[in-house]
Design brief:
Belongs to the TRAFAC class translation factor GTPase superfamily. Classic translation factor GTPase family. LepA subfamily. Belongs to the GTP-binding elongation factor family. LepA subfamily. Its EC number is 3.6.5.n1. One of its GO terms (cellular component) is mitochondrial inner membrane. With 609 residues, the chain is of the alpha+beta class. It is 25% helix and 33% strand. It is built from 14 helices and 33 strands. Helix 7 crosses helix 8 and helix 12 runs antiparallel to helix 14. The protein binds guanosine-5'-triphosphate. Guanosine-5'-triphosphate binds next to helix 1.
Length: 609
């Protein structure tokens, strides 16, 4: 297939507007997968993706299609397919917009899918602009037209007013009933450009993604921009300077299908004896060893926006957790993990995530795929602190912000985001109140049609990582949609809030908060802890403090818990049983200093904003 016969495209949409269903239908239409293959959402491969109905990691599938130019011609029915189409799936959730831009870099066009009843939503806007920045040609697809509340005309008006897309270009489809789907592939072929690479130039390919396979080793997804790649070729990496031999090369059809060669414009996989995915730098340029090439532009590195400590729920499990994290970060380079130790929790990891959902998904994968039981500390964002000696540090762990009498904090900054919120106009009031409580600054307010309002806010990242989206949904009866992009660091008035148990600070519970909110957050944390810590043999005081100033205090009175008290009579087996039971109960506790803290207490602390 010469580049003129290739189209690389993506489907972009707001969550739940039908992207994965539509992708499945296209794979069926082209015979890439069988109809009713019993595994809906073919491209969502991870267990968490299927369970939560979200796409986390982008997947690619190659399809072959017979396109009839003009009128269908009965004589060419026997002819082989004349077009090769690569569908590059993208995640829909805001945390993964980094993955979206990566996938779009390998495309020339995108289907912008919008739910005919819900209309344009916050992620439609965000994804449209990501595609627009990549200079992609866009085909608007208004999906779910089978729904009784579908209003395609309203969606067309929104597409025109927000993105200046011609309403006549919109395709009307139902991925459920199949209506209108036959127009999609012809539109992809006729309206999207072919890949621009040069067949006779030296090989340059972009490394899109990689994962580790038990049997084959590291498998790289690549887009061949110029030239061709064959099995047996010697290739080199611009990023690492390493050389490899191509052991296997092929397409995802949709399973790995060896072809022995990939030509200009194709997207496929390469196995080249890389030992770990750390060697496979996403965005790297691979080329024929000995040739001289200009590297491709690549990608901006993933930015970690949320950090938290991960510790084994049971101290002895550190090695198991270490192993699980190593394996998992091997396949998800967007998570960073560095060993750290906490006085309270022992050895663990400081992990960086793209966002809160990303963190949740990682926790879930650790538990589901590796059976790890973990305690996670209050998530934090990367703050910047400046000291009196002029030095500046990025603080990813609040506990590391030790009070050093020789060094005074002179200024601090926190990361902010630009949030896009779309809501029916009757909810404007409560949303404005919520955003100002969260220290937001309104940047834009406009109507996208006669019922819906689009607002843009600058918000501190810290304010949206905990519970913002849930609250936004609840005050708008579920109608609000929300997306955000990173923005600059802003000067702020931040303080470190310590939690003390029996006058001992618990490093794993320290958090950095805005000065104006410290009092309330301190009180909430202390109350939460009181609720979840059981009475013990001695009195426990729980305090929140800023420096040496105590801002909240609770205490739990002592209780004598002698499980053997009831066992008069001296029945040894019964005594043993009770002691065993008591030990069981203790397993789910974490002893901090002298106080046993149940795992749930740590989970509850995560919810205080
Ligand atoms: P993410 O993977 O999270 O981005 O979601 P998505 O955009 O891929 O949405 P998905 O394909 O999972 O569809 C969401 C829901 O809408 C599912 O329950 C689908 O069955 C349903 N759905 C998809 N297309 C249609 C359609 O044309 N009509 C109707 N009525 N329902 C549809």
């Amino acid at each position: 297939y010469p580049p003129e016969r290739i189209r690389n495209f993506s489907i972009i949409a707001h969550v739940d507007h039908g992207k994965s269903t539509l992708a499945d239908r296209l794979l069926e239409l082209t015979g890439t997968i069988k109809r009713g293959h019993g595994q809906p959402q073919y491209l969502d491969k991870l267990q968490v993706e299927r369970e939560r109905g979200i796409t986390v990691k982008a997947q690619t599938a190659t399809m072959f299609h017979k396109h009839k130019f003009g009128f269908p011609d009965a004589s060419d029915i026997q002819d082989p397919p004349n077009f090769l189409l690569n569908l590059i799936d993208t995640p829909g959730h805001v945390d993964f917009s980094y993955e979206v831009s990566r996938s779009l870099a390998a495309c020339q066009g995108a289907l912008l899918v919008v739910d005919a009843a819900q209309g344009v939503q916050a992620q439609t806007v965000a994804n449209f602009y990501l595609a627009f920045e990549c200079n992609l040609s866009i085909i608007p697809v208004i999906n779910k037209i089978d729904q009784p509340t579908a209003d395609p005309d309203r969606v067309k008006t929104q597409l025109k007013s927000l993105f200046d897309l011609d309403p006549n270009d919109a395709l009307l489809t139902s991925a459920k009933t199949g209506q209108g789907l036959e127009q999609i592939l012809p539109a992809v072929i006729e309206r999207l450009p072919s890949p621009p690479g040069k067949c006779d130039s030296p090989l340059r390919m972009l490394l899109l993604d990689s994962y580790y396979d038990e049997y084959k080793g590291v498998i790289c997804h690549v887009a061949v921009v110029d030239g061709a790649l064959r099995k047996g070729d010697k290739i080199a990496s611009v990023a690492t300077g390493q050389n490899y031999e191509v052991l296997d090369v092929g397409i995802m059809h949709p399973e790995l299908t060896p072809t022995g060669v990939l030509f200009t414009g194709q997207v496929g996989y390469v196995v080249s004896g890389m030992r770990t995915t750390k060697e496979a730098r996403v965005g790297d340029t691979l080329y024929h060893s000995k040739s001289v090439v200009v590297p491709l532009p690549g990608f901006k590195p993933a930015k970690h926006m949320v950090f938290s400590g991960l510790y084994p729920a049971d101290g002895s499990d550190f090695d198991a957790l270490n192993h699980a994290i190593e394996r998992l970060t091997c396949n998800d380079a967007s998570v960073s993990a560095a060993k750290e130790s906490s006085t309270a929790l022992g050895m663990g990891f400081r992990c960086g995530f793209l966002g809160l959902l990303h963190m949740d998904v990682f926790h879930q994968r650790l538990e589901q795929e590796y059976g790890a039981r973990i305690i996670s500390t209050i998530p934090t964002v990367p703050y910047i602190f400046e000291y009196s000696d002029g030095s500046k540090i990025q603080v990813q762990n609040p506990a590391s912000l030790a009070s050093n009498p020789g060094k005074r904090v002179t200024a601090c900054w926190e990361p902010s985001v630009i949030a896009t919120i779309i809501i029916p106009s009757e909810y404007v009031g409560p949303v404005i109140t919520l955003c100002s409580e969260r220290r937001g600054e309104q940047l834009e307010y406009s109507f996208i049609d006669n019922q819906r309002v689009l607002m843009k806010y600058r918000l501190p990242l810290r304010e949206i990582i905990v519970d913002f989206y849930n609250e936004l949904k609840s005050i708008t009866s579920g109608y609000a949609t929300f997306d955000y992009e990173d923005s600059e660091y802003q000067k702020s008035d931040l303080v470190k809030l310590d939690i003390l148990l029996n006058a001992q600070p618990v490093d794993a519970m320290a958090t950095i908060v805005h000065n104006l909110k410290a009092q309330r957050i301190g009180r909430e944390l202390v109350e939460k802890l009181k609720k979840f810590i059981d009475r013990q043999m001695f009195e426990i005081t729980i305090q929140a403090a800023i420096g040496s100033k105590i801002i909240a205090r609770e205490s739990i009175s002592a209780m004598r818990k002698n499980v053997l008290a009831k066992c008069y009579g001296g029945d040894v087996t019964r005594k043993k049983k009770l002691l065993e039971k008591q030990k069981e109960g203790k397993k789910r506790m974490k002893r901090v200093g002298s106080v046993d803290i149940p795992q749930e207490a740590f989970h509850e602390l995560l919810k205080v904003s």
